[in-house]
Queue: 2 jobs
Job 1
Amino acid sequence: MRRAAIIGTGQTKHAKAHDDMNQAELVRQAATRALSDAGITFREVDAVVLANMELFEGRALPEMWVGAGAGGYLKPAIKIATGGTSGTSAAIAGYHQCASGLFDIVLVVGWEKHSEGATQTGMAMVDPLWDRNVASGAVGNFALSISQYVAERGVTPAQAAKVAVKARRNAAKNPYAHLQIPDLTVEQVLRSPMLADPVHRLDMCPQSDGACALVYAAQGVAEKLCAQPAWVRAAVTRHDQPYIGDLDRRLVTMRTLRDAARAAYHQVGIVEPRKQIDVAEIYEPVSYAELAWYEALGFCAEGKAGELIDEGVTEMNGELPVNPSGGVLSSNPVGASGVLRVAEAAMQVMGRAGAHQIADARVALATGYGVYAWSDVMILSADT
Amino acid sequence: MTELLKISHTMHLEWRYGVGASFHEFIAALRARAQILGRRCPGCQRVYLPPRPVCGNCYVELRDWVEVRDTGTVRAFTIVHTPIIDPTTGARRPSPYTMALIQLDGADTTLNHYLEASDPTKLRIGMRVRAVWRAQRMGLLGDISHFTELTDE
Amino acid sequence: MSYTHNVSLTHSASQVNTFLPPISILGVGRTVYAPQPGTAITELVYHAVQAALNDAGLTMRDVDTRVTASVDLWDGLTASNVAITEVVGAVMQPEARVAGDGLLAACHAVTSICAGAYRTVLVVAHCKATMSDPRALSNWTFDPIYQQPLDLDDFSAAALQASVLGSLAPPSHAPLADGAAAIILSTAAAPLTIRGMGWALDEHYLGDRDLTDSIALRAAAQRAFALAGIADAKRELECVEISDHFDYQRALWARALGLDDFPKLNMSGGLGRGAPPFVAGLDCLIEIVLRLRETPGLGLAHGCWGPAGQGQAVMVVGR
């Protein structure tokens, strides 16, 4: 049992279609960049953890083909796949492997190449006797839950649109982001085509091709390789019941995120998240979800998420910046999206976020979201 | 730049899903009598649709069957505008269409199904609805064509 | 794109543990392995989990987390662990899901215990090999550019490997069946403990591999033997269960493990017992556990997955 820290991150440019690289090459580019950021080579990597939702590309065990891109040849390599949380679950798995005392350096790589498959068909392969009947993709499922959230919390389409605007404006400072729209307005979001009431196209995340990697090093090694490692202080997973109809008003209650965050805060000694967390990278596939997550994460009181975005608390220059990278709303290669949250949080703590760096970020939160309501929460810190 | 080559593969796969004992009963009752069966948890008393082996909240086996009505209350709804490929047919669904999470009378979970309302502006959470059944029943959720407003309560 | 093939198998850093902390196997459980067309995956998994909990004398309350193993395309479900969330007790609880063999899931579970994250872990693997066509499914494992268009699949890859080994007859495959297996690992003291483990990926392109050998299995075994302090596997091991998905693989894997002509190899009869892909390696571990309960000593379980055994895992257990 040892402490472990992130000492390097790397990602590809996220884009609608990466015809210039196959899946293995995408992975290799992200992995190479992360290792270079950490100042090491493939040779120093002791174990590899991969993340990908293979059904989106219609593949089985794609790590067989793609694993070598992450330097997995003859190394202990494993793939984690848990839906949208695949990336954060892989980040947690990599952390456990590094903290186990069995490996000094663990490389985590998540990827997705939506342009090579039929994502909507893959996503519709839910229970053939039940939810598959009316399956309407992530948009349809979110729209249902948003109707409950809006009815109970009274958030407005304009408040949700502000989240979408913030994401794309922040993304303009992130050279790797897919959707970079520096001058997007609330009106443009509200005028974009309606996908499923009340979700407009610009309220929703894109589908991206991309990969993201991070490098863990164990205590004793991390300090030697990195001036300011991002130490893992908490890593918590909560899953929930299998059908959308099982979950009571999921965006209102979001019990998995609520419980995972409370457990993580407790481990780190966070009692006032808004004051004690310097920056958050949260998994928000749709604008309204970010508002719901504010409440579940305790960034504001119940029903006050609309005010939080109105007051600019979560803007780049606010008290608690949320998703300075542009978040999932700006780049969404699903298997990489969770790794991206953790990598971006680490970049903030390491002071390597470039134009979207939050000054003096010492404590960063990363979350993962998947399936109907699964959650991962990680807390990274500049201090061990 | 020259255009990069792409290779195309088409997937033709078939799966034979075992429905299991719980669904078997459900399907049989649905097909024979248009009866909807849920299962009650002896721990939390929650009535589950679809029926399943275990209550995930209590981790106890579900054994008791409960008849659930084909009327219910809308707990969430949306009008889907974006083109969706129907995974059961492979064809594009006509849009827009309305779908809802409906809590059937007697059940504690909600059912995701189509909702047809004469006036879409009257859609609201809490509205009462009833199932419209197809003439031929296969024992599938699709035996219910859609739900519609319940006006004669 | 080029890959480095020059891999050092010995570790130079002083930090890395040279042995495992005591982690015991408290219970094992499994379904029958047979075609079970009407049975749901949830039921198979629930049965295996209950059997393991009963064997351990535990309830789900005692389990801190789960590591499950399954493959979406084989289940015909996206994120196929969603279906089993309730039966593995993962509601409002942690779970990690590994795409690969259950023995790999067990290896990962051990690391999360070593990390101090959890004390007691349930490991579960499932597969219904008869619900689709494994030949057609496994074609989608091969890279789509060079190998998939050749119509390669797990069976033709095996035939290729068998031919390289000198057999012109098509290799015979273990019977395809449906089932689930579960095992409970814990820091709680018990007679059976995990002594070593290793896993590794081989080269994907069959033409790049020496198909008469498995260096990935050699790499995995080397790590497992090092952790277990085994210098002479043939002399020190009491029993060995290897995943012979095809008949020729028995001798091939045994040789890579340094266990040619080992007398107590696959006393269970091997995968002729029907353990499905992705369950097989975990079931080998169960076979070893059951044998060591009768006869003390060291046992080795082996699992493999992917084309011609591209993925390899080894676990050494002792009593």
Job 2
Amino acid sequence: MKKTTIAILVILTAVIVVQFSCRKTDNIPASGNPDSEWLSGGSETAFDQGSGSFSHAFSSLSAHLLRVHEIGDGQFGATFVSAPAPVNPGLGPIFNNVSCSSCHVSDGRGKIPGIGESAANMLFRLSIPGVGEHGNPVPVPGYGDQLQTRSLLNVTREGDVNITYTDNTYYFADGEAYQLRTPAYALTGLYTTMPANVLLSPRVAAPVFGLGLLEAVSDASILASADPDDKDGDGISGKPNYVWDILNQKSVLGRFGWKANQPTLLQQVAAAYNGDIGITNFLFPKESSQGQTQFDSAPNSKSYELADSLLYSVQFYVRTLQVPVRRNVTAPMVVQGKALFIKAGCDKCHKLDLRTDVDVSFPSVSNQLIHPFTDLLLHDMGPGLADNRPDFLASGSEWRTAPLWGIGLTQKVNNHTNFLHDGRARNLMEAIMWHGGEALSSKVKVSHFTKTEREAILAYLNSL
Amino acid sequence: MKTIATRALLIGLPLTMLTLSCKKNNDNNANGFESLKTDVLADISANVCTNSYQDLYARTQELSDAVTALNTATNDANLATARTKWKAIRVTWEQSEGWLFGPVEANSIDPRIDTWPVDFNALETILKNSDALTESYVDGLDESLKGFHPIEYLLWGQAGAKTAAQFTTREKQYLVALTQNLLKLTKEVRDVWTTGGYQTQLAKAGSGSTEFTSQQAAYVQIVTAMADICGEVADSKLKEPFDAQDPSLEESPFAKNSIIDFTNNINGILDIYQGRFNSSDGKGLEDLVRANNLSLDAEIKSKHAAAIAALAAIDVPFGQAITTQQSKIQNAMTKINELHSVLEDKLNAYVLQYVK
């Protein structure tokens, strides 16, 4: 008996050794170890580095749930048209775009308009100073809380935005120059008077993969790293935003959107349908144009335009998109870049690891070690990036730490490398150098890195 | 002694097998297989992808000429020619959806030429108003008012039975502007592949390409696109109108061209697999597969043939078939899903194993 055991052990060892020696040269390791650094999305990581790498459904879905995901996928890409129509009626009357996927192209990051182009894949939040009944920003009379830059034919759009940039040259400590462009936004072609004290915040369409995993992180895990008054004195706050949950009629932790102003994926999706496409739904049953001259009370006055089942299917779709796998994790430059990322303190907010909560009702997102590179909290990013428009508890200079997973695939999926909330950064290094406020010391550290070190940190970011 | 010998065998056998499975890779590193990987990518990007976009542009040029003729002399013969030319473009376009990656996606060409549904209300509004119907006017319209399907609507009419005598002047002006816009966009995608260098990006994957840093990335991209179009046809284009029992959800309803569209979608898979498009024929994925796995090659081809046969068995227009030929539609979805599985599981695994 004992000898047999030893023999089996020898065989097993041999098998393991041989398998390892086989695998060594692979670009992507086997998914056997769920805690691997390669697997940004835990067991829901997509093994694709191509232009479709943001668009993979969770692999653990049952046939039934996969079908729900597919219906949501179809609906996410569905182009809406003016009512009445046999397919997808209800567009507008004022809107920003005609489908989810026309801003979130390939489930990725929106492209910012070129000089002189209309602001298609980004939108502008509007408000006037003050705080609404639920702590929300106060909508602008005649405009609501976002500028709809498109409208149906024979309907007047709210207006457009003219974007101009001013270039300035700065220098790394080693003397190499870099440029940052500062955007300026001017409202044009407004259909009616805009208050002079309007607050304007540009927002680029953010990638939509991995959101179900972020939603599955418990409030307690997020709040564990909160330090709004910086009691530990490390210069990093981490402030939770508390926002209004319409379905449950209470104030809850916000976690989605550039300022963490949406509490749940359902509300995020429903708000976007209503505000961006002009599609009413059970959470937002009123047209955004109601009370404005563009509003036509005749069609759809009785009920809302999007069936609940379709709204839920789109929520499920964005909840069940996998995160792309890391690339080149063990390449020496990437390893060096990771050390520098930590040395500069980037990981204090762009946290390397989060763990999702146990969720017996949906095992796909349950208890996963994930690497989104965010703490889902607000941080003061300084005056350079400030939009000066408060959003619930987020001040005019606070932004939610943006997740960095998949960021290295932006060029491949979306054919551009414009980053930050308004796409002003033309590449990752510019995005780093725009950091200020709490992130100022990290930025200064990066600016003192040597050229090789800067390249290493970029290699690391591009491997995410 | 005997038991020890057995144990030795037990230890030795798996070791030998594993060593062999390791070695297999090394054998394939022979120059022939290595250069084959490069040749296949070069041929696919030139003979299939780039060629298809050149063909798309050329056929759009022909449609544009036919529409010009129809505009000048509005008779049924010229209308019939324009319809034939529209269908001819669709043959190329639907096949090219088998490789829907790169510029056509990233530059948002696809939504600007192939958005469905058409916004009928807006279209009627445009026909009634007095805006000058120029190419730049059409270019500024929403996606649901330009591209293939508004052209289809104008050529066939809602019921599919329009005659030349029914054309209004505004309809002809809109049609001309629509085809000019289509010409501009198909030229754009052709140019990005040719002078823009995307063809080289794909061909030189893993050796200087910024788009594809390894050959494996390029092959995975190609196989993913092949599998995706199966999913698109089986799970969306066929399934949604079928499940809803609603012919108004059909994709090319005016020309009653849907089954032909679906068939060309599936044909695109074999085009890129075999590395051939129209008359140009080069090396394709099949050459790569046949080097190591003849049974996989045979399986892909037989599943593909079964999917095409299942689509061919539907012998009435799709909008009608969803109520009268349900078992045939179900069979087509099943066969396309089987092809999907082979591509997604086995072919993908093959390229992951043999291409780095």
